[in-house]
Write a structure and sequence with these properties.
By secondary structure, the protein is an alpha/beta fold. Helix content is about 30%, strand content about 20%. The chain folds into two domains: about 180 residues, Beta Barrel (Lyase, Ornithine Decarboxylase, Chain A, domain 1), CATH 2.40.37; about 230 residues, Alanine racemase (TIM Barrel). The protein has 15 helices and 19 strands. The strands form three sheets. Strands 2, 3, 4, 5, 6, 7, 8, 9 and 10 form a nine-stranded parallel sheet that branches. Helix 3 packs parallel to helix 12 and helix 10 packs parallel to helix 12. Bound molecules: pyridoxal-5'-phosphate.
């Protein structure tokens, strides 16, 4: 599919300031949706590259080149085809499960760090053998790794004292004693600091992290600042939505020098949301004209909250655009209605987005809903509840060519592991159990 010259199909010139310059205005959605139907997630390689370049430019401008490594977490998008361009950009992946290692290595990835959460000794052993920096999340897990003489020890610290896996701040002195008792030092520590933080918050967090280094782990070779960099879902302009990486890295360089952090200490970052969110849109079909009843008005779509459950769960008000059957934007006139965006299942709460959206009264059967900024924490969270199959995923590459990278789920996806007939578990017949005991 060649999508090089289609924009006039999509938005009339001068019609939409909101989408002006947005990558989706250059994509032939008519062609993609005719081929695959809806719902469908569409991603842009060009936008992913733009986003990673924004981060790298900030690193360069602050004079931190060579001192900073980027590891984009795999799980918030979890599609190796979509993340592939990161490899050529020198960005690695953050993994948290052994199956992620299997799928990403099959797709040629090899530069990893690992933040596994709380895991068994066997799984710690698995990652130790692979040799990647693994950020362990409790004193117990670290104790095991120390007793096993693990070649390198890194830890994950939960700076918020939240329920996320991680050593709590009150345990840092114990951790430092434990390392001393084994005559070991930390290779690196990762600090979880929540999500969606402002620039000011993130700079304050850096100050606290440097203080942790100075107070507890002055021999560590590297500091991992993790993610948490804010992305504003409610803005339209690219600059307004994205985190200000340039000022952030400048502040880090300044603080490092003021606080006496040695130049030999390297910095790691794990940005997901800011690098991935606006690389994706979800297109759903509108299946009825606006329905109004005693509980308000709804737009009926073939989408579902099961396709991207965390928008509802986290109250994330993604921007929306309505498109007509030819995928031209439907501009809102004075005749608009505030509507909830209904998914296709019977569930009371099957609304794809939280709250209501203003919908032009002309929107109806055959039109489309485009949900913006769905590149992180969306398709990867698909739920099979209510038997909703996952949506197809398409990547539009740097040359404007569209590629199907995830087949839409078929109607029997939910039951793919259900056996045609029950299968006997060996030894479970009472007689054979007795003979085993005897
Ligand atoms: C360990 C770790 N690193 C990075 C991230 C990504 O954070 P963000 O999406 O805020 O960039 C997360 C998100 O949960 C995380 O748990």
């Amino acid at each position: 599919m060649n999508l090089r010259n289609p924009p006039e199909k999509f938005v009339e010139p001068g019609q939409s300031a909101r989408l002006a310059g947005h990558w989706v205005s250059g994509v032939d959605l008519l062609l993609i949706c005719s081929a695959l139907g809806t719902p469908v997630f569409v991603y842009s390689e060009a936008q992913l590259l733009k986003n990673i370049h924004r981060v790298k430019d900030g690193i360069r401008a602050a004079g931190l080149e060579g001192r900073v490594s980027l590891y984009v977490p795999f799980f918030p998008n979890a599609n190796p085809h979509i993340l592939k361009p990161l490899q050529a950009e020198g960005a690695g992946l953050l993994l948290q499960m052994p199956n992620e290692y299997d799928i990403t290595t099959r797709h040629g990835f090899s530069d990893f760090i690992v933040s596994p959460g709380h895991v068994s000794n066997e799984e710690i052993g698995f990652w130790c053998k692979k040799g990647y920096r693994t950020f362990l999340a409790s004193l117990d897990e670290i104790n095991f790794a120390l007793n096993e003489n693990a070649p390198t020890i890194s830890v994950r610290i939960d700076s918020l004292d939240s329920d996320k896996p991680g050593i709590k701040v009150g345990q840092l002195a114990d951790l430092s004693e434990m390392l001393k008792a084994h005559d070991r030092t930390l290779e690196c520590f990762e600090v979880y600091c929540g999500s969606g933080n402002s620039l000011t918050d993130m700079v304050d967090i850096v100050r606290k992290i440097f203080q942790i280094y100075l107070d507890h782990f002055p021999d560590a070779k590297a500091i991992n600042f993790a993610g948490g960099h804010g992305f504003d879902y409610e803005k339209w302009g690219e600059q307004e939505k994205h985190f200000d990486w340039r000022t952030y890295f400048q502040q880090i360089a300044k603080l490092a020098s003021e606080m006496g952090i040695p130049d030999t200490v390297n910095f790691l970052f794990e940005p997901a949301r800011d690098v991935l969110a606006d690389t994706g849109v979800l297109i759903a079909g509108v299946k009825r004209n606006i329905v109004t009843h005693s509980n308000g008005s709804i737009v009926v779509t073939d989408g579902s909250r099961m396709l991207m459950p965390s928008a509802q769960l986290r109250n994330r008000a993604h921007n929306t655009v309505f498109l007509d059957s030819g995928f031209r934007e439907i501009n809102e006139s004075e005749n608009a209605t505030s509507c909830k965006i209904r998914g296709r299942s019977i569930l009371r709460n099957d609304y794809i987005l939280p709250g209501e959206v203003s919908v032009d009264n002309s929107v109806g059967v055959g039109d489309h809903l485009m949900i913006m900024d769905v590149g992180a924490y969306c398709a990867t969270q698909h739920m099979e509840f209510l038997n909703v199959p996952p949506a197809a995923e398409v990547v539009v590459d740097i040359n404007g060519i569209a590629h199907l990278v995830t087949m839409p789920g078929d109607d029997f996806d939910k039951w793919r592991n259900v056996l045609p007939e029950p299968r006997l578990i060996a030894g479970s017949i009472p007689d054979s159990r007795e003979s085993r005991i005897a």
